């Protein structure tokens, strides 16, 4: 459908002015065509064309109605807005006119404001003068109030006196504050001079307060009013201090007073001076015990007063019971340290250690039922430092050590003094010789260890270690005295008279000490004897046994000198005499306990056997014939058998005897065929590996029938078959020295010129 030129002219401005309308119309037409082509794409659908036309007509009408309504509402709102804008413009114009009028009015009043400034200054000056006029009566009455306040203090009306003092201080501080704010520092000196009497009042009041505080424990028991008054005054001053400290602009002179801290200080000094700065007391003996008992009584009594009475007189935040408890604890610790600096004896040191570590935390002092649960001694820390406790324990151990050393030395002197008595040593119910030495020594050490256990385990261990060291040193001194006594006896065998019994008593004492030492150990489950102490005991036993064997040897020596000899071969009573001497000594040995008796018996048998062999090897005799050799062997058999049977009867088994070497030696001498001698010697040195070629050579000389060749073969065989000493072997030949062979003298004998 075409459009006329007029229509085009009319549409052109609209299209140019509203391009969105044209675009919307094109979209609408396109959508309509698309819808129509979808609905009427078949001929039979054209029958409903009228129906669709009516429906779309109705819908278009409805849309146009809504559009008209919307446009109408929009136009009405625009009209209302324009009306409001016109009204606002009118009001703004009115305000501008009023502001201009006010500006001109202010400019007219500027000169009058200068007159008001002068009036304001006069008003401030009037206010100041009015304030001065108000305080003038108070200023004029300062000296009168001062006199009245002093009178109140003398009469101990402390609250009233403090009230007037606070009033005068407030007046002074207010004046000083005003001067400070106005920068009039020069006038402050005049004010301070005028109020100088306040310093005297403060000092007088403080002196009375601290006097009351120093008597507080007595006052709270008798009449707590004064003490409560002092606390109230102190709290007033604390509040004033807190208020002034919060206002940091000005702090009056003498502030803060800090009277609460001064209260604590005076109370602590009073407690310290009353009990711990006393005159010098006797640090030894009963004086220290009385002093500690008095401290115990006073501390408990005064803490009970604090807990039951003083706590009710002071505010809760004072923690007065904790303060007093800590003061007593600290002052007592310092006091005890001063005492410990003195040179105390062991009783005083023990008393102090017991009191500090046992008594002080016990129910007798700080753990008293009347003080619990408020007083907790565990929260106070140690009364004296662990280092000082350790140092004191060491001092105590040194004192005990000196006492033990002195006592042991005296015991040792008494012990060896008894050796020179005319009587034998005492015997126990079993017939064993003994003395009081082990009982005295062990009892003394045990008592000291048990006493130390009453303090601490560490002290007990220190004393135990000291006891073992001193016991070891004592055994060393005992051995030296034993050696000296043996030397003196060798010079004169009649002194001491009962030398052997006292040596046997020494062996029994040694066994008693050895069995008693484990009982000294603090720990019952650990009863081992230290190796060094065991070695010292062994040395005592060996020395005593050695002296006894030397005594036995001195009696046997004259008999050994007689063998071998022709007289001995003919059947003398030499061995019978030996057996009598041995039997005599073994009867004495029966007074010693079993372990030592067995050792003595074995050592005696070894001594008899070695001395017998030594006598045979002195080259005193050489067999001249076969018959004499047979006679020699028979005598050896008889002697060895008799001696062996003697020791068997005494309880020594054949396997433990060294006399078997005599029987073996006899076999070497009795051997009829010298050609078999190498084999026999090999067996001999296998059984007795400590035998040397000198020993064998001497034995071959004793036979008297050995050629140089046989001797050479035997000695060569020994050189080719060295025998190591087996473990546990008891040497016998190594202790026997063979005389050196005589060197041939090739010059002819002649008389000296």
Automatic annotation (TrEMBL):
It is found in: Cytoplasmic vesicle, Secretory vesicle. Its main location: cytoplasm. Gene3D superfamilies: 1.10.357.50, Exocyst complex component Sec6, C-terminal domain (1.10.357.70). Keywords: Cytoplasmic vesicle, Exocytosis. One of its GO terms (biological process) is exocyst localization. Residues 1-21 are annotated as: Disordered. One of its GO terms (molecular function) is SNARE binding. GO terms for cellular component: exocyst; transport vesicle. Pfam families: Sec6. Residues 1-10 have a biased composition (Basic and acidic residues). As part of the exocyst, may play a role in regulated exocytosis of insulin granules. Interacts with EXOC2, EXOC4 and EXOC5; may be part of the exocyst. Belongs to the SEC6 family. This is Exocyst complex component 3-like protein. The lineage of its organism: Eukaryota, Metazoa, Chordata, Craniata, Vertebrata.
